[in-house]
Structures are given as structure tokens and as C-alpha cells.
Amino acid sequence: MPPSEDWSAILPLMLGLCLFSFAVGYLLGSIPFGLILTRLSGRGDIRQIGSGNIGATNVLRTGSKGLAALTLVLDTLKGTAAVLIGAQFGPYAAIFAGLGAFLGHLFPVWLGFRGGKGVATYIGVALGLYWPAALAFCVAWLLVAVTTRYSSLAALVASAATVGALTLMATWPLAVLFGLLTILLYVRHAANIRRLMQGEETRIGEKQKA
């Protein structure tokens, strides 16, 4: 174990690298690909369409499956890219980068801190940090989505299942991180949870309910 004077030099460096990684992750996560792609394609401001969300599900409501798929891929990859950059400075920096990317997507400074719900970026962060967790999320999402046709319910169940899987299979820092991300994801889905409880949530393939 290093002497105490070595730790006094190492800890500030580690903290600095973690904060730097968090900042890089936030900037990557805050790129609103859904908004950028719909504007570039001449489809207007995605925030004025459907639910007003900037994610792939709402982009799909523009009628373009291609744009929705591209938004999904880019929102996922920005989470993975943030983690891979942070990983160059160590495993804890990678975790901070993933947290930054997720928060950046949810609360982008460029859009008045009003961003997406975070599902794709959640998967991307999981893919970068521990790919079996991303696989567990996708399998759980598909099972629930196919069974119920509720995309929101599928995301809620899948995120909870991911935390459970990480608690059993991975390290406690990862379990803690995804526990926090899952809480934030639930908060961002508060309106969906309310509609699910009231039987008013829109199913996959249905038009947005008023």
C-alpha cells in the first residue's frame, strides 16, 4: 500500500481526471441528435411534435423510421463514446464519464436543461462499462415490449432488471451508478408511469394520445 504522502498526490489527480471525464461525458451526452437530425431533414423542431421529447420514439412520430433509427444509434453511441474516453484515465473516470453523458442527455445546457428520457444513452453507457448489462437491458426490454406493447413499461422494467443483474454479476460501483441512473430514468418517466396506472399510456404502434 502506498505511503500516505503518495495518496495525497494521487487522489487530487484521480479526482481531477474524474471531473474532466464527467465534463467530457456531459458535453457528449448533451448533443441533441434527434433535434439536429429532424431540423437538417426539414421536419422542423421535434419539440413541437408529439410528446415534445428529443429522443428516437418521438422522432418516429415524424414518420421517418430512418431518422428514428439513426437517432437511437447516435444517442446510444454518445454514451458509449463518453465511457471509452473516460476509461483512458481509469475505471472510476469511465464511471464518471457515463454519469456525465446520461445527465447531459437528460439536462442539456443548450436546450434549457430540457432533454430526453435517457433510455438509449442508458444502454450506451452500459455497453461501454459492462456489455452484459446492456444485453440484459435489451432482452428484458424486448420481452416486456412484445408482451405488453408498452415501450415505457419495457424501459422501466429493463432498467430495474439491469440494476439487479449488476448487483449479482458486477462490482458495487457499477451497481450504484446504474441504481442512480435508473432512479433518474424513473423520474423522467413520471408522466408515463401515471398514464400506465390510469390505463392511458400509448402502446407501440398507436398514435400519441391527447
Question: Could you give the topology of this structure?
Answer:
Blueprint: H1 4-29, H2 33-40, H3 56-60, H4 65-87, H5 91-106, H6 119-129, H7 131-148, H8 151-169, H9 172-188, H10 190-198
Helix pairs in contact: 1-4, 1-5, 2-4, 4-5, 4-6, 5-6, 5-9, 6-7, 6-9, 7-8, 8-9
Structure in words:
- This protein has about 210 residues and is an all-alpha fold.
- It has one domain (about 5-200).
- The chain is about 70% helix and about 0% strand.
- It has helices at about 5-30, 35-40, 55-60, 65-85, 90-105, 120-130, 130-150, 150-170, 170-190, 190-200.
- Helix 6 runs antiparallel to helix 7.
- The model has no long low-confidence stretch (mean pLDDT about 90).
Task: Provide tags for this entry.
210 residues; mainly alpha
Low-confidence stretches: none
Rounded average pLDDT: 91
How would the global form be characterised? globular
Largest sheet: none
Alpha carbon gap, first and last residue: 62 Å
Please provide the ordered H/E string of secondary-structure elements.
HHHHHHHHHH
Q: How much strand content do the residues show?
A: under 5%
> What gyration radius follows from the Cα positions, in whole Å?
18 Å
User: What's the tally of helices?
Assistant: 10
Instruction: Give the structural class.
Output: mainly alpha
Q: Domain count, please report it.
A: 1
Helix content: over 70%
The beta-strand count equals: 0
